């Protein structure tokens, strides 16, 4: 390891200095591409070469060969962002070095793991991006680096026949997922990703390396499970409680659009009340080429084939019509996750974004996307007029797509309940434990186009569903349009989280539009 030159040189600097500064997950959070570059008030001239020399990882600057890749997030909407530097840290000492530099030079920072933040806040023009992609260790004992991509997490743990509950997007990093909650096809059986954390290691604003758990820094551990993305420090690694990777059963059912009202009415009463081992989601997708939208139900079970088959029969009976098509088959857990990730025909190295920078692979074949999204939690079933509003919004997007020659609109309703809701709302900073359904509204469009029509559809969909929703939103789907995001994301936990923010980051070194 190189001598920590900046840590030595800045020892006389203040412990923390104020800096200027959505979220998915994330999927990690930080600066809007439409925000002006932060004003620099540093009295110490920036010396990026000195920072580069002090790191064991790589510092990428404008003009470097890797900069075009290094500055990109997953969503092409944010391609106009131009960070001052991207630091691919190799260990906690590199993180400490970057934070010392930021304090000395009043350099705004952004923390990035997978780069899937819905609001683009894991990068930003004029910022030092601390990227943890190199910290990608996956241990059979459940020790996992913050930058490990989900495809690598599932594949690595599968070697020992183990897994953790998580999402389906293969290029999402485990950090952004776990720190905001983290749901997936085994969440009703095993709990959220954050519910399976046993420890979190991070570097705080003043440069301390801490490991938070139920026994050490329990207040911080509470906060990191639901409000940890970008608020309290740079997370570098996790300890997880792992589970035996189960055999599973995948199901996929479709109905004609004329049956959509009955299908959604039946599913919302059926999905959240199934046995823990059965997960399901309802999809309403606008047709991009005209015609009717589609309605389908995806289900996954770690129980028996017969039990899922019987449960789906009960759903069809409740819906009042048999599905037009049904696919139901047994699968191994890793195969199921690769299928949901769209990687069932790819190798592990192919199931990444292509490129030379950490987190990508030269063999990667996946592509970035262009989209915007928002979310709602529902604590009670939608009444008939609420369902009609949903269907109307899907039909509206079909008309938009036909006239706008591209794009797609999807409404995804995911069943909660089970192990998720047996955790008390105040036990972690993920407070949405009484919700039955999580809705995500997604609008996508062709890269290089404005997407204005699609984003208008998204805003109007949110508005149309507001009378029926709880008012809460999923913090991993960061939404810059929320006016009272503290309450929407954190509910009654918000005041306690604000106090912890003052305790661990009093000068707001970690700052962005929805920082606590």
List keywords for this structure.
516 residues, alpha+beta, Uridine Diphospho-n-acetylenolpyruvylglucosamine Reductase, domain 2, Uridine Diphospho-n-acetylenolpyruvylglucosamine Reductase, domain 3, Vanillyl-alcohol Oxidase, Chain A, domain 3, 3 domains, globular
Overview of this structure, please?
The chain is an alpha+beta fold and 516 residues long. It has 3 domains: 16-131, Uridine Diphospho-n-acetylenolpyruvylglucosamine Reductase, domain 2 (2-Layer Sandwich), CATH 3.30.43; 143-244 and 497-504, Uridine Diphospho-n-acetylenolpyruvylglucosamine Reductase, domain 3 (2-Layer Sandwich), CATH 3.30.465.10; 247-483, 3-Layer(aba) Sandwich (Vanillyl-alcohol Oxidase, Chain A, domain 3). The protein has 15 helices and 17 strands. The two termini are 35 Å apart.
